[in-house]
Design a protein that fits this description.
heterohexamer; A alpha+beta (about 200); B mainly alpha (about 180); C mainly alpha (about 400); D alpha/beta (about 210); E alpha+beta (about 375); F mainly alpha (about 110); A: about 200 residues; alpha+beta; 3-stranded mixed sheet; 6 strands; about 35% helix; D: about 210 residues; alpha/beta; 5-stranded mixed sheet; 9 strands; flat
Chain lengths: ~200, ~180, ~400, ~210, ~375, ~110
């Protein structure tokens, strides 16, 4: 048994060390003075989803309105309506793509289940708005971000995605070329549905 | 009449009246504290510095707080409606008190020998009081010490729960090493 | 300006101010100036102390503390004060209006009264009362009533629990607090705080002052006094009446706005007053620690020591958990009170052995005094040590 | 751990009158479970806990499952005499399984570090005969979990000393975990861009609120 | 919510005519760790009855899960015990893997052990901080714990993308592979952690006030602990050797060399100390795992993200979460959604004997006893 | 300077109030409060006589007051202990209800 009071003294020494240490060692004082300084988000950081487009913000959207993400979204915050042409035929792009990020819980499942790498997670987190309702409902045009932006915030992941897409495209082109060649030699064969949704 | 005396007397008497007449007993106790402070101030006014300070220390610091504590412990703090505050024989009591007051005042008023000039205020240091206590008043002091000790023991025994074994043992004792 | 004139600058200023007035008004005005000076100084110190406490606690906890209002957050107390002022003053419907209103006033008033006898510097005691120590305890005795009034008048179960705790704690710790000062009174033979402070002046030619804390009984007395003072001031680890994690804010739970600020102020002022008394009794009052530092003004030393003790208060608060009610009571009655009585005996032994002239008498004097204190301390804590201690764990 | 068959036999032997049924589990990862009738559940539970070979002293997980009445249509071949010739017909047979509620206990042994033995109790139906035996006297750990089942499924536990709602408030109507539970129409409109909320609001209020 | 009169009778020995004080600790109380209420009847300051009341955060997680696919429930498990999302993920993934018969690759197993033990570190450190805060230590230990937790959360963030709601594990493995840089950072955190533990040790374990406050308080006897299904550090503080990492050897815990500390008295101090010692053991596991982690895939190739339909049947999968046994009971009918989805929350079940531990103690003890149970209301209420 | 009779009358009134409180109130604690008031009235007299009498240097009056205060404190402690014991026994502190010497004539 130690001397009574020694435990208290040990504690006092410890707090005194921390008191002094907070002035000299940055490791002890971990607080970030947020509005003035902010830590860069790590590469894997995820906040709210966005839609990736190539070249054109509207036409170039990779999204084909397949609604898999809408179905899988745990809090059901995605709302998609596919574009239809005049005859009512479903076109493979969204007319409406809304995400209510006041409901979204940043789980990344939409990005994971998307077979087209069309929806990805943003790292932007300063999204506070003055209006409580509506302002946090993001529409297609708010959500559309370029592939360059994606490459900037998630370089590693984006490189993988680009490689995969390039590979897919090459395969499709090869297939199309083969089909064209096949179509060219025997006459009248129908063109194969190259880009059917899986 | 000295205005200081007058003010202090009024405060003291008001406090005393409040202390016996108010319904809510916590108010009574607080009024009692006011009376005590008033009396201490009167002591100081008389030049009895030491007695005045002891009055505050003992009466305000201890007696008033003890009374307050007792009020809380006996749950008599809340004056319930419909419960009589005054005893059945309150008229007799009031009459007795009035008679006593009349007697005393009559005696005081009829004693012309009391109307004398106060002598010069005595210079009485704390050291002097202490020395007196330790020499001239030593025996009473010792007896008082004995009395206080007896009181303390008595009060503790009186206020102790009757069956200490029946009560749940407090934490540390219960958690003694097996 | 000489060192002496700087030392007396406030006293001289007051005299100069008084000399402008007719003779008859002077005593009254002198009192008023003293009161105003105490109020101003300690209200400012209260503001500074809240800031220091928050900063200090922050640094102890590896945080920055307030640093947004003004440079380094120095204007934080202003912001706090403004917030307190403009906050709604909430009065519970069931509350006893008058008592609820009077409670913070009673508390702050009684604490403020105690300042009247503290010597803040050479010739700077507002009143040099013959029975200064007695006055100090008498004046601060009424704080208990303030706490009770607050707790009872709020008509909340939490605040009632807090008030009960507060009263029990303050009564229990009042005794060791008073008893631990008796050693000093015995040795100096005076109840006057000015005289006690003067007795600790560094003697001519000596380096170290004759502070009472440098004697074994004085050190023990100081520690006992500070322990009891922490409890009297309701500061951690004895902040049970507040008991933030148990009874939320105890007797203050139904207070808001400025009344709450008054309670806070009362707590801090109580802390300063107790520290001031400790300084005067044990830490050499307004005297410099070393004779060669005597050039600095006496009030500087007083306030420097005050801030040092304040730092100790904050340090304790940042380190220690709270005791439990029964443990607190046991500590007061079964350890602190006997120890302060033992300390009285030690002080007696010390002052009687002052006449010893044998060789080695100094050492014997020290050893006997220290033994007289340490052995009972260990003996008194034997029950606790049998029950509580570090444990060894086994592994499966 | 002894085989479940043997366990059942021993339990039936030690608790007279108890009939235990082994309920198969389609998933091979977990053992099949023992179904015990509520009348003998307590005795069987005591046996399971105190039997020196089992010592199932730890009721890890206690939960309810709701099985509403189901009607499954199965194709079956029926032989029938038609005109003196035996012919096989394909008919659709409706199989009706009455609904019931189930309390499932996952029992382990901390003493012998074995388990699990899964114990089930079934109620008679889903409306009136919803009482099963509380096993809280045997395993104190079932106390809150049985309360939760009572709260969310509406199974009454006979012998539970403090059967109150656990998560929902006193006075709540219905048992929300039942599969046919319909949320009460206490919809409170709050302007939001969320489509289904707006849809609900439209349904709820006579005139759609201006948003 | 109106305070309904508790229907349970007062315990024997408490006469009605004694001056009892009924107070409601919570739901807004500094030390109920969330919206939790204790209906306490006091005799003076002594507790004569205590009924925990909860459900303020009830969102019927189980019902929600029955209406969505298996994968969609994964992010919701993060929100159960929001201090330990990784272990929640793990328990759910474990149960689904059992149901679907998926094999977790070695590397993923190691990753799971690493993040799981890091979770244990941060949970225990914070719990001790909260507990001493309940004792009145002004949050100093809590702040130190948060400082260390911050470092671990940084690791989680750079791995999974989110600090607290990690949603990291998938059926049959993990979502993202960890990089060598991450491993390096994790090693540094693990190497620095003992220094923090020593700091904590000096500040708390031999502190006289902590010992006086916690020793002999809230004693939970061994038999009652077992009978009341108490799990986790609380159970081991009562001296029962039951750690699922040893008993079930789920994952790859049989590959690691670690010990299970056991308490003797079952009081609050033991619960603090068991958590201390468990942190030290977690560090040894972490060191081994970080040393031995093999390369390889992190996801079972049979695992499907889209259109995942496990076979029919029922399973109960459980792991040793920092707070105790966290189990998931799943009944599948072969459809994409679980037929029945049940969480066995350790916090809730450990609360069963809260009243037993608090009776006869002071209200100040009740607060730290509650603290030592280590509850998170997200898990209690679900 | 206030003449002596004023002091005496003040203390008489105080005494009378205390006596009235003692006799009129039902609550035992109030009776104690009345007694305290009477004791204080006596103390006031002691101080007054000391101040106005001869031989003020001898401090006899102060001594009387000091002893009286000490004894009064003791009396309060014992009195309140009695009150609390009474309350434990009878659940009441009304003096007119506690008129039997035995405890068990009323249900607790």
């Amino acid at each position: 048994m130690s001397v009574p009071g020694s435990g208290i003294l040990k504690g006092l020494v410890e707090t005194a060390r921390n008191f002094a240490g907070s002035y000299v060692s940055p490791e002890r004082l971990v607080t970030v003075q947020y509005p003035e300084e902010s830590l860069p988000p790590p590469e894997n950081a995820r906040n709210f989803p966005f839609l990736v487009y190539d070249e054109d913000p509207d036409k170039g959207l990779r999204c084909v309105a397949c609604k898999i993400c809408e179905k899988e979204c745990p809090p059901q915050c995605i709302y998609i309506v596919a574009e239809r042409d005049e005859k009512g035929k479903v076109l493979k792009r969204p007319r409406i793509f809304d995400i209510d990020i006041s409901v979204c819980m940043n789980c990344q499942i939409c990005a994971e289940v998307c077979p087209f790498d069309a929806i990805k997670m943003d790292t932007e987190f300063e999204l506070s708005r003055y209006e409580r309702f509506g302002a946090l409902l993001l529409h297609k045009q708010d959500l559309a971000k370029s592939n360059e932006y994606y490459r900037r915030i998630h370089p590693t992941e984006a490189a993988e995605v680009d490689a995969r897409l390039a590979e897919d495209r090459a395969r499709q082109q090869a297939k199309a070329a083969a089909a064209k060649a096949a179509a060219a030699s025997p006459a009248g064969a129908p063109a194969p549905a190259a880009d059917k949704t899986p | 009449m000295n205005p200081v005396f007058f003010i202090l007397a009024v405060v003291t008497l008001a406090g005393a009246l409040g202390a016996v007449a108010l319904r809510n007993m916590v108010h009574c106790a607080l009024c009692l504290a006011v009376t005590f402070i008033g009396i201490a101030a009167l002591f100081l006014h008389q030049g009895a510095q030491f007695a005045g300070l002891v009055q505050v220390l003992v009466y305000v610091g201890a007696v008033a707080v003890l009374i307050v504590f007792a009020i809380l412990l006996t749950r008599s703090g809340d004056a319930r409606k419909g419960v009589a505050v005054f005893s059945r024989s309150w008229k007799t009591g009031l009459l007795t008190a009035a008679a006593t007051l009349a007697t005393l005042v009559a005696a005081i008023v009829n004693s012309p020998g009391l109307l004398r000039e106060a002598p010069r205020a005595p210079e009485l240091s704390v050291r002097q009081i202490g020395l007196d206590l330790m020499s001239q008043w030593l025996l009473p002091l010792e007896i008082l010490g004995l009395l206080l000790t007896a009181t303390m023991i008595g009060a503790v025994i009186l206020a102790m729960p009757e069956k200490p074994s029946g009560e749940p043992a407090p934490g540390p004792e219960k958690g003694a090493r097996p | 300006m000489t060192a002496a004139s700087i030392d007396q600058v406030f006293v001289n200023a007051k005299q100069a101010l008084l000399s402008l007035l007719p003779e008859t008004l002077r005593p009254g005005l002198s009192m008023a100036i003293n009161a105003a000076a105490i109020l101003g100084t300690f209200a400012l110190l209260f503001a500074v102390a809240t800031l220091l406490e928050r900063k200090g606690l922050g640094r102890i906890q590896n945080r920055y503390g307030p640093n947004r209002v003004g440079p380094f957050g120095v204007l934080q107390p202003v912001a706090d004060g403004l917030k307190m002022l403009i906050k709604e003053d909430i009065l519970p419907r069931q509350a006893d209006r008058v008592v609820h209103f009077l409670a913070p006033i009673a508390l702050v008033l009684s604490v403020l009264l105690a300042y009247a006898v503290l010597p803040f510097g050479r010739n700077m005691a507002p009143i040099d009362l013959d029975a200064g120590v007695l006055y100090f305890f008498a004046a601060s005795a009424a704080t208990e009533l303030g706490v009770f009034m607050a707790g009872w008048a709020s008509r909340s179960k939490y605040s009632l629990l807090g008030a009960m705790r507060g009263i029990a704690q303050m009564i229990s710790y009042e005794l060791p607090l008073v008893l631990s000062t008796l050693g000093v009174i015995m040795v100096t033979g005076s109840l006057s705080l000015v005289e006690i402070a003067e007795r600790q002046a560094p003697p001519a030619g000596a380096i170290l002052g004759r502070w009472f804390v440098f004697t074994p009984w004085g050190l023990a007395g100081f520690l006992l006094f500070m322990t009891a003072a922490v409890a009297e001031a309701n500061r951690a680890p004895f902040d049970l009446p507040e008991g933030e994690s148990e009874i939320i804010a105890g007797h203050m739970v139904e207070y808001s706005g400025f009344k709450y600020a008054l309670f806070f102020m009362g707590e801090y002022l109580g802390m300063f007053a107790a520290s001031g008394l400790a300084i005067t009794l044990f830490l050499g009052g307004y005297h410099a620690p070393f004779a060669f530092l005597g050039w600095a003004p006496s009030w500087f030393w007083f306030f420097a020591k005050l801030l040092a003790l304040l730092a100790v208060f904050i340090w304790l608060r940042g380190t220690l958990p709270r005791l439990r009610q029964d443990q607190l009571m046991n500590f007061a009655w079964k350890w602190l009170l006997p120890m302060s009585l033992v300390n009285l005996v030690a002080a007696g032994v010390w002052s009687y052995s002052a006449a010893w002239t044998l060789p080695g008498a100094g050492f014997v004097r020290w050893a006997s005094c220290a033994g007289l204190l340490i052995l009972p301390a260990l003996w008194l804590s034997r029950g606790w040590r049998a029950r509580v201690g570090p444990r060894v764990y086994r592994y499966a | 751990m002894e085989p479940l068959e043997q366990l059942r036999a021993r339990a039936e032997a030690s608790v007279p009158g108890a009939v235990l049924e082994i309920v198969p589990n389609a998933c091979p990862a977990d053992p099949p479970s023992l179904r015990v009738d509520p009348g003998h559940a307590l005795a069987v539970a005591w046996f399971l806990r105190d039997d020196p070979q089992l010592r199932l002293d730890y009721a890890s997980n206690v939960t309810g499952v709701d099985w509403p009445e189901t009607v499954t249509k199965e194709k079956a071949r029926v032989k029938r005499m038609v005109d003196g010739v035996v012919k096989e017909f394909e008919t659709v047979v409706e199989k009706r399984r009455p609904g019931f509620l189930e309390a499932v206990y996952h029992l382990y042994s901390m003493e012998l570090k074995q388990g699990p033995v899964i114990l089930r109790q079934r109620t008679g139906d889903r409306d009136r005969a919803v009482t099963v035996a509380s096993l809280t006297p045997v395993w104190r750990g079932a106390e809150f979990q049985e309360r939760e089942i009572y709260d969310l499924y509406g199974i009454r536990f006979e012998g539970h000393q403090d059967l109150r709602r656990l998560l929902m408030w006193e006075g709540f109507e219905g048992h929300p975990m039942r599969r046919d539970y319909v949320e009460p129409d206490d919809y409170d409109y709050e302007p939001t861009p969320h489509a289904d909320v707006l849809e609900k609001a439209r349904k709820h209020y006579p005139a759609p609120p201006a948003s | 919510m109106s305070a309904a009169p508790p229907s349970a009778p007062l315990p024997a020995g408490a006469a009605i005519d004694r001056d009892l004080l009924e107070i409601s600790l919570g739901p807004h109380h500094p030390s109920t760790h969330g919206v939790f209420r204790m209906d306490v009847v006091l005799d003076g300051e002594r507790v004569v009855r205590l009924k925990p009341v909860f459900g303020y955060l009830h969102r019927n997680h189980e019902k929600l899960a029955e209406g969505m696919t298996y994968l969609s429930s994964m992010p919701f498990t993060d929100r159960l015990d929001y201090f330990c999302s990784m272990t929640n993920n793990w328990a759910y993934a474990l149960a689904v893997e059992k149901l679907a018969g998926l094999q977790v690759p070695d590397r993923a197993q190691y990753i799971r052990v690493i993040v799981g033990e890091l979770t244990r570190l941060l949970n225990h450190a914070c719990l001790i901080g909260f507990l001493t805060h309940d004792m009145g230590a002004m949050g100093t230990p809590l702040m130190y714990a948060f400082r260390e937790r911050e470092k671990i959360l940084d690791l989680f963030e750079s791995l999974s993308g989110s600090r607290m709601m990690c949603n990291y594990m998938r059926f049959g493995g993990c979502r993202v592979d960890l990089s060598p840089a991450w491993l390096q950072a994790a090693r540094k955190v693990v190497d620095d952690f003992p220094r923090f533990l020593d700091e904590f040790d000096a500040l708390l374990t031999t502190n006289e006030i902590v010992m006086t406050r916690s020793q002999g308080v809230g004693i939970l006897p061994r038999e009652l602990a077992i009978n009341a299904s108490v799990t986790g550090p609380m159970l081991r503080a009562s001296g029962v050797d039951y750690d699922l990492r040893k008993v079930d050897r789920y994952g790859i815990y049989d590959r690691f060399d670690f010990r299970v500390p056991l308490g003797e008295h079952g009081d609050v101090y033991d619960r603090i100390m068991i958590r201390f010692l468990e942190m030290r053991e977690s560090l040894t596991i972490l060191r081994q795992a970080l040393r031995e982690i093999p390369p390889g895939p992190i996801l079972d190739p049979k695992s499907k993200l889209r259109g995942f339909r496990p076979r029919a049947g029922e399973v109960y999968g459980r792991i040793e979460a920092p707070k105790g046994e966290l189990g998931f009971y799943l009944v599948s009918d072969g459809s994409p959604n679980p037929y029945r989805y049940r969480v066995r929350p350790p916090s809730l079940i450990n609360l069963t004997i809260l009243e037993d531990m608090c009776l006869g103690q002071l209200v100040a003890d009740a607060v730290i006893i509650l603290g030592s149970v280590d509850i998170v209301l997200g898990e209690v209420d679900r | 300077m206030t003449p002596l009779p004023y002091w005496l009358i003040l203390s008489s009134i105080l005494f009378a109030i205390g006596l009235a409180g003692c006799l009129v109130r039902r609550n035992a604690i109030m009776v104690l409060i009345g007694i305290e008031l009477m004791l204080n009235a006596a103390n006031l007299n002691f101080i007054a006589f000391w101040r106005y009498g001869s031989g003020a240097e001898a401090a006899h009056g102060i001594m009387f007051v000091l002893f009286a205060i000490a004894i009064a404190a003791a009396e309060t402690a014992v009195g309140l202990a009695l009150v609390i014991a009474l309350y434990r026994l009878r659940r009441t502190v009304q003096v007119d209800e506690a008129d039997a010497l035995k405890a068990d004539d009323k249900p607790r």
